[in-house]
Amino acid sequence: MMGALLWAAVGSAGVLGLGYAKQRLWSFAAQRPQDYADGRPQFDMRTHLNGPITCEGVIYGPLGRVTSRFIGDFEAKWDGNVGVMKERFEYDSGTVQDREWHLRIGNDGRIQATAADVVGTGTGAQMGSAVVLKYRVRLPQDAGGHVLDATDWMYLTANGTIVNRSQFRKFGVKVAELVATMRPKDFA
Fold it and tell me: What pLDDT is stored for residue 26 in this prediction?
């Protein structure tokens, strides 16, 4: 009996350990900017997230099903390493959301970002063909007002389209994922 209890405890710890290792070594959360350092084309936010931008995407809920679709219109302007990106999202529910990001890129590619619904300052980096940004976002009151940990990865494709994948977590548990594309409004 004691052996069975010990095996159950060790087995449970092993499963938990395996789950932790998977998340840290082989998943979305395991990515690092250095993984994309040699990627081409080089992603420079001041160039590729500049001017009028069109965005389309979907949001997946915690069960992996699409819970929302959206389109977005962005306008980004840069003065050297300091930029402002205004976003307007229209969701299939009829909800409209506006956000204004204030961005700063260091000479080393590190990013600092703030917005009205971001708690504190988001941090990230641009390296090679990718950009990562991590921040804490407060949902609107009608969506519960929760604060979620967000990680945005943006990948530049050869034709200039940006593919954005974001995950949102509460207490370390993924509660939503977003996949979107962004491209200049005058994109052919």
Answer: 63
The answer for residues whose C-beta is within 8 angstroms of residue 52's C-beta and 6 or more apart is 73, 74, 75, 184, 185, 186
Q: What is the residue whose two structure tokens read 């506006």? A: 98
> In whole angstroms, what is the distance from residue 157 CA to residue 139 CA?
30
pLDDT of amino acid 142: 84
- What CATH number labels 32-184? 2.40.128.20
Q: What's the pTM?
A: 0.84
Residues of the chain with CATH 2.40.128.20: 32-184
And the tokens for 81?
A: 């390493």
What spatial distance separates the first Cα and last Cα of the chain, rounded to whole Å? 70
Q: Which helix (H) or strand (E) holds 9?
A: helix 2-25
Q: Coil, strand or helix: which one is 170?
A: strand
pLDDT digits (tens, 9 = 90+) for 93-135: 999 999 999 999 999 999 999 999 999 999 999 999 999 999 9
Q: Which residues pair with 66 in a beta bridge?
A: 60
Would you state the structure tokens that stand for residue 99, as one six-digit string? 């956000």
